[in-house]
From TrEMBL:
This is Dibenzothiophene monooxygenase. SUPFAM superfamilies: Acyl-CoA dehydrogenase C-terminal domain-like, Acyl-CoA dehydrogenase NM domain-like. It is found in: Cytoplasm. Residues 1-38 are annotated as: Disordered. GO terms for biological process: L-leucine catabolic process. Belongs to the DszC flavin monooxygenase family. Pathway: Sulfur metabolism; dibenzothiophene degradation. GO terms for cellular component: cytoplasm. Keywords: Flavoprotein, FMN, Monooxygenase, Nucleotide-binding, Oxidoreductase. Transmembrane segments: none annotated. GO terms for molecular function: 3-methylbutanoyl-CoA dehydrogenase activity; flavin adenine dinucleotide binding; monooxygenase activity. Residues 150-237 form the Acyl-CoA oxidase/dehydrogenase middle domain.
């Protein structure tokens, strides 16, 4: 194995080449770029989404990880949607990203979900102060690099602590630890990893997956979202570039809202797909019940009512996700202005968090009800495994279990009654007070 110094030199040389490939100089000045039109983006991505949708059921039934769909999306630089055009991206707006993410979720929610960590990291780099490091990462994303996620640790990791350790090695860093829920990492070029320095300080690093010190496993055994690559990742003395470290205090203040709205967009996509499948099944169904109201299901007013309710739920879910766009715009403006002025403010960050929480509470009810209500419009043949209509509930339930709704609703209620604010630091682990206690019998 090469030394840390040799590895760092090699990575730094590659990094400089990455920037030079896109920019005439490491400090190219910013220029205004008009975002693409919705129709331009549709022309690029609609055919790919249709291709993904056409093979989604086959992947679901065979548990085939979507490496091919990710490659198709890489070819059209879906991961570079928000990356400025001068770095090789599309320069799309936040609203355009969310709209396309919902459509991708309709094609295959696994694929939409696996971009969660990537979208968050890209957004963080977009809001970072101008620097050669920022240019480096945006150029990498512009050429098609994808970021996975590895934050949560298995077992008895203490709450708000990390057992994954980042240690200095020569002029660079080495990472050692074990993560679970590594969504998207098996498809990724980089992984956004949370870790602790030797003094306990919390940091995040972007780690290249193309090295022997990173081992990824597809051992996620959930009943839904089975194809997101959400499994175990083991880091053993993994090399970390010196400019790939970010301290917790430097992270984007409203990053939690970004992570959450990606999940909500995927859930809204599920609602979109299940409403389409319900309408199609009713439209083509020939068998009817003797106690029904018409000779064809598509002419039965009660069946049409069910379809209308399911379709309306999908419409509402999409509208709810897109309704958060203004709050994100205000949060970004506040973050950039106050960061430059050196007077940090969190007013709009709290507002966008609360906005997303409110949407989460309502959207969850809409999508989960629709995913079971659709069976009221169909016969018992709809529960056969081949149609996999149960996947919509399983996938939505899995997505919406990431952050417990009861806690979100409590925070919203506390804000309405007492002016309470959300906690911007979220974590899962074992409370210190219970670490040495025996489990209840």
């Amino acid at each position: 194995m090469s030394t840390a110094q040799d590895d760092r030199t090699s990575l730094d040389t590659t990094a400089e080449a990455d920037v030079a490939e896109v920019l005439p100089g490491p400090h190219r000045s910013h220029r205004h770029e008009a975002p693409p039109t919705d129709s331009e983006l549709e022309a690029v991505f609609r055919p790919v989404f249709e291709r993904i949708a056409a093979t989604a059921l086959e992947r679901e039934l065979g548990r085939v990880l979507p490496f091919e769909p990710v490659d198709w999306l890489r070819e059209v630089r879906f991961g570079a949607l928000r990356v400025p055009q001068r770095f090789g991206g599309h320069g799309a707006t936040w609203e355009q990203l969310l709209a396309l993410l919902i459509d991708l979720g309709a094609a295959d929610p696994n694929v939409a979900h696996l971009y969660r960590g990537h979208i968050a990291v890209v957004e963080e780099k977009l809001t970072a102060p101008p620097s050669s490091t920022r240019d480096l990462w945006l150029s990498r994303f512009g050429r098609g690099d994808i970021v996975g996620n590895a934050s949560t640790e298995p077992g008895s990791t203490p709450l708000l602590k990390k057992q994954t350790v980042l240690a200095p090695a020569g002029d660079g860093w080495r990472l050692t630890g074990r993560k679970f829920y590594s969504t998207g990492s098996v498809f990724a070029d980089w992984i956004d990893v949370s870790a602790s320095l030797e003094d306990g300080e919390q940091v995040n690093v972007l780690v290249s997956t193309d090295q022997p010190g990173v081992e990824m496993s597809d051992d996620w055994d959930g009943f839904g979202q089975k194809l997101t690559g959400t499994g175990t990742t083991v880091f053993t003395d993994a090399v970390v570039e010196p400019h790939a470290l970010q301290r917790r205090s430097e992270r984007l203040t409203y990053l939690g809202a970004v992570y959450q709205v990606v999940l909500l967009a995927a859930a809204a996509g599920i609602a979109q797909r299940l409403s389409e499948e319900t309408a199609e099944a009713v439209q083509t169904r020939k068998r009817v019940y003797s106690h029904g109201n018409a000779d064809l299901a598509r002419e039965d007013p009660q069946i049409l009512q069910v379809v209308g309710e399911v379709v309306s739920a999908a419409h509402g879910a999409r509208a709810l996700v897109l309704s958060t766009v203004p709050a994100f715009a205000r949060a970004r403006a506040e973050y950039e202005q106050t960061s430059r002025a050196g007077t940090p403010s969190l007013e709009e960050t709290y507002r966008v968090e609360l906005d997303v929480y409110r949407v989460q509470v309502v959207l969850a009810d809409l999508v989960l009800r629709a995913s079971t209500h659709l069976f009221d419009a169909l016969g018992s043949s709809a529960v056969r495994i081949g149609s996999a209509l149960d996947r919509h509930w399983r996938n939505a339930r899995t997505i919406l279990s990431h952050n417990p709704l009861v806690y979100r609703a409590r925070v919203v209620g506390d804000h309405a009654v007492n002016g309470g604010i959300p906690d911007l630091v979220g974590a899962v682990g074992v409370a210190t007070s219970t670490q040495n206690k025996e489990p209840a019998q």
